[in-house]
Amino acid sequence: MKRFAVIGAGAGGLCAAKHLLGAxxxxxxxxxxxxxxxxxxxxxxSGMSPAYKSLHINSEAKVSTFADFPFHEDVxxxxxxxxxxxxxxxxxxxxxxxxxxxFKSRIRSIAxxxxxxxxxxxxxxxxxxxxxxxxTGHQSKPRHxxxxxxFSGDYTHAHSYRTPGQFEGQRVLVIGPGNSGVDIAADICTxxxxxxLSARSPVLIMPRMMFGAPVSRTLxxxxxxxxxxxxxxxxxxxxxxxxxxxxxxxxxxxxxxxxHPISHPTLISHIVWGRIAVKPGIxxxxxxxxxxxxxxxxxxxxxxxxxxxxxxxxxLSAALNPISPDHSRVDLYHRVVHPACPGLFFVGFFDVTGGxxxxxxxxxxxxxxxxxxxxVKVPASAAMQASIxxxxxxxxxxxxxxxxxxxxxxxxxxxxxxxxxxxxNRVVRVPPVPVVASVAGLARSAT
Length: 447
Fold this sequence. Notes:
- This protein is α/β, with parallel strands linked by helices.
- The protein contains eleven helices and 22 strands.
- The chain has helices at 11-22, 81-94, 179-188, 215-222, 229-244, 267-272, 357-373, 381-398, 411-424, 437-440, 442-445, and strands at 3-7, 26-30, 101-102, 107-113, 116-121, 127-129, 131-134, 154-157, 171-175, 194-198, 205-206, 209-210, 213-214, 262-263, 276-279, 282-286, 289-292, 297-299, 302-305, 344-346, 351-352, 408-409.
- Strands 3-2-1-7-20 form a five-stranded parallel sheet, with helices on one face.
- Helix 1 (11-22) runs parallel beside helix 7.
- The longest helix is centred in the C-terminal third of the chain and has 18 residues, at 381-398.
- It is globular, with a radius of gyration of 22 Å.
């Protein structure tokens, strides 16, 4: 029996372990904190979770689970971080993963010699494994915006934001109109004296609900796979305009190409009510005075930078580290396999363009287990490198050339890539059998 180390007991690590066990691979899970759930654990003692008090998942519950472990029927339509962390605890309990987790075990180094890996925990001795799955996530090392250098007020990255209390009565600038940025701006605006959201890049703020249902359901009905990309983008812009009007009337710029989907249930309302103002990018900073690219200047007491993260894996040597020099991209075959070290796998290093990160991690973990089991063979290193280059070229033609989009992934295209890999290896996939609701209901009560 092969032995694998899985690094991280969040969504990616748990489902990787579950699939590996199903492939008759022995698994040890190393977790830096003292709980399962990763980024969904509020105030996680691993220090790696960006969860804030009001955090809810952006995709609806029924598509935000592992394929064989649905939420209980009475879970929220858009679960919050407590419901998500309880869900992962229940998942670990049901699939007997908890006893395989070594908590408070932060990885110091992973080395590769021959056909095996040496894994060393801080303060521990090296252990040998046949394979390693890295599932530590990519939202723990904040990317700080250089344009705020010289600001004399209080500065916070979104990774450290928890509640609006500390900003009571302040003038606050939130930088970045991504999902975290719009969430935080809407969260603090009823407590602050004035809230401004800085949006340097074009963005489409879609409604969360439409026609009494999540807008994603409407998009699924309208955005057929055979439709040209331009027509699919037109559908999104049209639906948004029906609900919110033009982005320009609220201070944003409507994107002309493909961008990461953003949705929020109340942001536009807060702008209408005057609680949030929208400004373009920052031109210069002088003390507490910030001048924007439209020429206007305002004074702020605090800045919250929702400017994303850099991807770092400090426990990997340069030879094993697949991260690009600018820390925005991972050079992996099918986003999973290290091309120079096929026994080293990665799960969860992506940003999904629509759909659920959790479900995509399930797909990746199934693929890892198929390779570990020998059912799927990966090609030689040169062929994997060529595939990576092709993927990079495709992404460059699809998404803006910024670090924000270095990990972007199209779920439909990606699932077809994996399906082709199974077909090439003549693997017949068996559809997962969902756990009955009464069992999945453990997510409601697990602690």
